[in-house]
Amino acid sequence: LKCMLTDPGAVPKMSRDIKLDVIPKGKVILKNGEFVSVCNRCHTYKPDRAHHCRLCGRCIRRMDHHCPWVNNCVGQYNQKHFIQFTSYIFLSSFSMILILINFFKTCDDIEECVFSSHGLGALSVL
What we know:
Number of helices: 3
Mean pLDDT: 78
Helix content: 25-40%
Shape: rod-shaped
């Protein structure tokens, strides 16, 4: 839940309206000689290691990917939560596999264990 609700590190949109013709695409040189990247799609300041997500329509700092399972981008601020989420999914799947293996190992007649109506069989495990 935290992975879905945490901001992935979206670059804020420009606060004022600027004509899109004025902002050149690619890198811009400032007066002090620094290079600034401008996103080609959303025409806003793009920090280093930021990428534009076409599904979210915004630039994300340290973007890894847009995950459909959490319906959010995985970026700078929610990467830890995404790793925790995938670890918990792995652990719960692994423990369910162990429970099912133990269930079928201890069962003498598999058809009776799975299809019995009095004990609900394998459905009670799931």
